[in-house]
Amino acid sequence: MIHGLKFRMIDRKKLFIITLLLIIIVPAVFIKSPISYVPLIFVILLVIFSYLYTFICLKSFKLDVESDAEGRCERLSTADYSIRIANKSLLIFPRVSFSVILESEEGYRVQDFEYNFILNPKEKKELNLNMGFPHIGRFKVIISKIKFFGFIDMLFLNKKSKWMEELLITPKIYEIYNYEIHTVNPIFSVNYHVQHKVKGGEFNDVREYIPGDPIKNIHWKLSAHSDTFITKIINADAVSGITLYIDFSSEENFDYDKAANVYDCMVESAYSVALYALNKDYGISFVFSFRNNPAYYLPKTVDELDDLIYSLPKVSPYKKYSIGLLVSEYSNTVISFDNIIVLTDKINNMIIDSLINCRERGQFPIFCFIKPDGEKDMPESMKKRLIKSGIMYCIVSDGKEFAAFLGGLK
User: Fold this and answer.
1) Does one domain contain both 6 and 144?
2) Shared domain check, 133 and 243
3) Same domain, residue pair 149 and 55
């Protein structure tokens, strides 16, 4: 079950051992008598015995883990872990220390459960742990290096546990029942005409490629003569729908807990409203910044939506494309529907100006300001601008509050 043997000394007791050796060696040097070295020999033998004892403890130890997580859990759910430990020896009683850790894909410790106990000879111990999963994403449940303490409790051996479980923590789904999706564009087949400058000439029915567009729609001949990829605009139904602008950028003083709470709220809010739209046969699209580049996705089925949700970028300090810039650049293009929802934990005049422009064009923007518990509220001056402009807004701390704002929960 375990491997990677290492021998170490407890840091806080190094000074004690060094002092003890000096007390024994210094008088022996001055006395210059064989008997004066007896205490030193005794200490050396004691250390050797402690090391051998710890090594036997390590070889007599067995650890097994079982869980009911099954690799996939919903956020805020729990899973039971049964940790069975056995001391196979009749002669030793080891003191053992280790931790069970819930760690994010990025290496952040979300939870840490510490254990420190003594096993009697031939004793079998079962530790039952109920672990909760507070955030969305990919995580690992691991056991830290196991420490086996020596006979005099000054030395210990480290062994690394092989056991590890990977988990996908999925968003909670908050059902929406009566959100009105406004329809402005008629439902009929239409060919969008968007003009783009390419090498000084104007082309209809093409535009610059945006990440998320189908590769098969790239116009390779035009792309070969330009500095970027050009994609064809295909006949499509101008059905009304919802475009979600999601802000995955973070402030420079990045805090994992705050960022994770904001991420959970954004993803669960987007997931809930996207499911609602798809179930009513409305279009849904996502626009966000990924690695400092704008990205656009239009999932057409629940399976495609799930694939997108589980691959969304994490909150990061990338800030080249702010959420206000994304709304300003893309809300008046064919990739954006008339119902616009902006999900962010930041607000400034640029965002509000972009939403005001959407409102003046006859679109229906909703501004969702995400405020984790304990964080500052939206500035009053910004609230007044939103109200004066007739833009709907909400201040939420989780997906449940957002779903209630849109249509209520049964």
Assistant:
1) yes
2) no
3) yes
**Which helix or strand (DSSP H or E) is residue 297 part of?**
strand 293-297
Q: Structural domain of residue 70, as residue ranges? A: 1-170
Is-contact 143 161, C-beta < 8 A? yes
What mean pLDDT do residues 229-243 have? 67
pLDDT tens per residue, range 152-201: 666 677 778 888 999 999 999 998 988 888 765 443 333 333 322 222 33
Residue 228 lies in a domain: no
Give the phi and the psi of residue 388 in degrees, each rounded to 5: -60, -35
Over residues 124-141, the mean pLDDT reads: 93
Cα–Cα distance measured from residue 285 to residue 298, given in angstroms and rounded to the nearest whole number: 4
Element (H, E) at 44: helix 38-59
Tell me how far apart the alpha carbons of residues 316 and 226 are, in angstroms, rounded to a whole number.
32
Instruction: Give a yes or no: residue 97 inside a domain.
Output: yes
Question: Which CATH number does the domain housing residue 133 bear?
Answer: 2.60.40.10
| Sheet-wide strand order for 293-297 | 293-297, 283-290, 241-246, 339-344, 364-370, 392-396
Could you tell me if 374 and 383 are in contact, meaning their C-beta atoms sit under 8 angstroms apart? no
Same domain, 166 and 253: no
Indicate if 138 and 259 belong to the same structural domain.
no
Burial of 158 (0-12, 13-18, 19+ CB in 10 A): middle
Q: What's the whole-model pTM score?
A: 0.73
- Beta carbons within 10 angstroms of residue 22's beta carbon: 10
Q: Read off φ and ψ for residue 368, nearest 5 degrees.
A: -110, 110
**% of the chain beyond a pLDDT of 70:** 77
Buried b (16+ CB within 10 A) or exposed e, 31-65: eeeeeebebbeebeeebeebbebbeebbebbebeb
Confidence of residue 323 (pLDDT cuts 50, 70, 90): confident
Alpha carbon distance 261, 314 (integer Å): 11
Inter-residue contact 121 to 90 (CB < 8 Å): yes
What phi and psi, each to the nearest 5 degrees, are found at residue 96?
-125, 140
Spatial separation of the C-alpha atoms in residues 78 and 61, rounded to whole Å: 29
